[in-house]
Amino acid sequence: MLSIGYAQPVDDVNMVRLKDRGWDIVRRPTGGRAILHTDELTYSICGRNNLPQLKGGVLESYQRLSQGLLEALHLLGIDADTPKETAQPILINEQNPVCFEVPSNYEITVGGMKLIGSAQARRKSGVLQHGSLPISGDLTRIIDVLHYKDESQREQARRDLLDHATTVERVLGYHGDWWITSYAFEKAFQKILNIELNKMDLSPAEGHRAVELYHEKYNHPEWINKK
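Given the sequence above, the corresponding structure tokens read:
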């Protein structure tokens, strides 16, 4: 699955190449650029904006939640950090529409390379933050389904991505495990954010609403195909 940011032009995506690989596309309610959701762990945190973990502005709450992400990586044996300032801002342009190309300020890195990409949206009294941690595999697969003016630019994009982003597997030197990674996130969130996590199914009403939103909005061509 390829997800693109709320305001990202759908023209960034080469639909022919996407369909040839059998991948679907979705547009996120948060900003940022394209992410390929495969061989990765996606986390999501949502709640009311008056909760202690989510109160304040975007930056304040993001920094607070990042402590949980850092703790999860430390449990996995990864020496990650969140530098307050990076050498350059995240690259958002027509030549490289990839979320992981360059880390932006306060994003989680290892040795200067981006490891977790996160985004946050605040609507009325609600907050959503979600992100992606690449566990293994070839990060450059996403380059195959995006638009570039020629193949030389596509190859340069591959090199740039590998120079600026990494995976759990590349950091640790062995194939990462999704279940171990998710367990580390569970323990870290409970500890750092002072919450108790319980596994639950959606209620009938929640399931019904999710189906409605899928058909009425998130799978609707007008939502996905914004220019």
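The chain has one domain: 2-202. Try to locate this feature in the token string yourself.
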